[in-house]
Amino acid sequence: MTRFSEGFPFRSRYRILKRRLHPITKEFGLTLYVLRKSTLAVVGALLVGLFLFLAAFGPKIAPYDPYEVKLPDRFISPSKGHWFGTDKMGRDVLSRMLHGAGYSIRAGLIVLVIAVPVGIILGGIAGLFGGWRDETIMRITDVFLAFPSLILAMSFSAALGPSLFNAMIALSIVWWPMYTRLVRGQALSVREMSYVEAARSRGAGNWYLVRRHVLPNCLSPILVTFTLDMGWIITATAALSFLGFGAQPPTPEWGRMVSDGRIYLMQAWWVSVFPGLAIALTVLGFNLLRLTEVKWKKKSVSSPSTG
Amino acid sequence: MKLRNYILRRLSLLIPVILGVLVLVFVISYVIPADPARAWAGPRARTEQIEALRERYHLNDPIYMQIYHYLKNLILHFDLGVSATSGRPVLTDLKAFFPATFELAFFAFVLAIVIGIPLGVISALRRNRPTDHFSRVVALAGVSTPLFWSALIMQYFFYYKLGWVPAFGRLSVEINRYTGFVLLDSILNGNLSALGDAAIRLILPAFTLAFYTMGYLVRITRGSMLEVLESEYVMTAKAKGLPRRIVIYRHALKNAIIPPITVLGINFGWLLSGTVLLETIFSWPGMGRYAAGSIVQVDLPAMVGFTLVAATVMILSNLVVDIFYSIIDPRVRVGGKAQ
Asked: What is the pTM of this model?
């Protein structure tokens, strides 16, 4: 496999993998342990679990077609037939919300797929190589962080053409500096460790160090931070859609639904209130989980907020 | 003396960041698929008119030349260009809109401090009692509720249902504008009813914004207060027999206040993001609405002008926080680490 594991012919690949993943499994194990100890965290986990369940199975359990226009059924208030009422086109609000849960999850995943690898690569380079590379990368993150994040995301979304997918890309562009800073910090502290010095003295190159030492040490904090940032990504996606820079009608994205119902607020409060409540509860779930993590780690990584 | 050097050093760091912000905005405008000149000239414009606009805004030049022209005007004449859609100089537009946003953000900020910090302190002092639980619930609700939704809920209850406060606009009467800050202007006019009108219209948006910021503030204040209350010097002070009030205010609070100040500094920049949402909902004639409009219409000079102001405010608020630190904790100035 690698240069340094060749001396151990009896070590199976499984055990190597297990050892490499240990920092991650340990961290999640600890998180689970802390989770069990706190009622609030259990509530948070339940809310997040419910959200994930709805994202996966929502469309299957939705009672009505979320796109079907039935004008005679406009603005039916919450009742037995329509639990959360109907909107200006006679569409069932509950069904639309169930279809909408998936969009938020997708937003989070796209940010994960784009922002996290960029953060790992650039942060790793900045932290390990130092010098002008570090300066350049960090000054670029400064520029990105100097913008109010929502404005920056709006500009990118407008530049790419307003759509839900482009809004997610825009959010990743706004989010990567956070992860770059996080990984750089980790890389800086790992660089000073004696085992890294030992590896270096045996002739290990920088890329080997990134792969073998920096990455395993960063993955767990990144994953934990990311899970907890989900709440913010969900709010930000919804906010972009609300302003018209994200999902376009008739997409049943939650932020868009709030915005669609806004002008009818006096006449039919349920059109805006229920999707907004769904966002709030989901974010609350992630925040409750976050609180637990903060309690355990005694520090949090600052992230942008656009809610 | 040393403090002045520190501030100057920090201010000099502002220049590369501002330059970077400029480049970034120009790059964004460059990749926008729509043709800005065509968008500004309107649907019925002739080709020559569009060409003239392009020439005037240097849109035919390569991107680095565009940035060069912009910088030249900015540095030599302090000229931010002319807004392509409103036809007014961007500086005039910003001067008109900035006070509205600042007023909103500032009052939200003050409200958040006045409510948030005491709530956090009380919460820490009565740990795990009903007061503590109450303030933690308030904080969590504030942090978790999307701003645009809580704004709508506020409008629904306090305007539609209860009719206590108006929900749209900044001022309903005409007064002479001296500073652009309506509260100040109505005092200068000696017009008490205008002052009342402006104040009552400010309440709803400012409180919505404050509610969101407050959540972080309560949490951080509570956490840092708890930590300090357990430290040894607080115990010593208690053991000396000092009154509880003095221990809390003179010993504990002074040290516990540093993390909340950091959060506040970061948050002031965030408030600018929040105002975009709030100004849209409350029809508040501020920079956020101006920015959203300029982004929709690809109004490049307005976009650049706005982002420059926003980035500067953001950087300055961070600087103010750091200066505050160095006043509270002189170790920061000499390069040591704060607690």
From this structure: 0.82
